[in-house]
Design a protein that fits this description.
Largest sheet: 8 strands, mixed
Strand order of the largest sheet: 2-3-11-8-13-6-5-4
Radius of gyration: 19 Å
Distance between the termini: 35 Å
CATH topology: Jelly Rolls
Strand content: 15-25%
Length: about 325
Amino acid sequence: MHTTASFSVPVVDIGPSVAAGRPVGDVAAEVDRACREVGFLAVVGHGIPEAQREDLLRQARRFFALPDADKRALAIENSRHAVGYGAIAAEQLQPDLPGDLKETFDVGIERDPDVSPLDGPNQWPTLDGFRDGLEQYMSRAIDVARLLMRIVAEANELPFDHFDACLAEPLVTLRLLRYPQAQERSAADQPGCGAHSDYGCLTLLYCDGTPGLQLLTASDQWVDVTVPEGALIVNLGDLLQRWTNDRYRSTRHRVISPVGGERYSVPMFVNPRYDTEVRCLPSAVSAERPARYEPVVSGDYLRSRYDDTYVYRQPAPT
């Protein structure tokens, strides 16, 4: 496998659907094609103001500029709900390589943890405007994700509101990411983010424009992802691939450490509520294409995947 030229992922304008609150025109067919063929798309017309997106990156830079001791005081190891700060190499997404060359800070929706073990109190830094900025962006981006799932429902021959109930109280993680500058652009020794597929349903990503994100094509080539300025990158996770019985692709991707400076990005992972049973959709199952997956519970599946990824959650060697 080797890196080829830059690859422009399919671009879909969801503006008319944002205005209507449901799929409009050919948008379901366009999203469906991108989900089947690539597993990545760029959405424009999403309605999240530029000022709000830029403030999100500003907050990320503010947080990662804090003294190391202040960040470590919010360590993700302190949380039962996988929220907080992750230092360099705290995650190992590619087991055959060293831990990822990145810093992270995760927040979620604060709910009663007795209802959902993945929800609970966040660990917030004492930065003016930081919490408000992240929560306001998260609210707008969740609305985009809900609309995208309405489009997915229609594309899979379901009522457009089929997923509404399980996304009324979604499992959400908003992640701030900083990739430090590397000496050379290589994934051979320690990647910024190791090759992986996302675990859940949808990921919405906004980044600062610095190159580094790559996806693995169906022909086993790593290609650099390019999107229009201001677009949200959307990629599918393993739960949605299971739901669609492999009709949609949860595409492997990675981040190569930047050489021209630091890279900041903010993915938001949106998943159905904790107790949602994910089983292959009726439209994706037939006599010729039987169900390839047993049903799983959304939250239990995600927790098992987190245990495999975070170094601190893995058992000590014996």
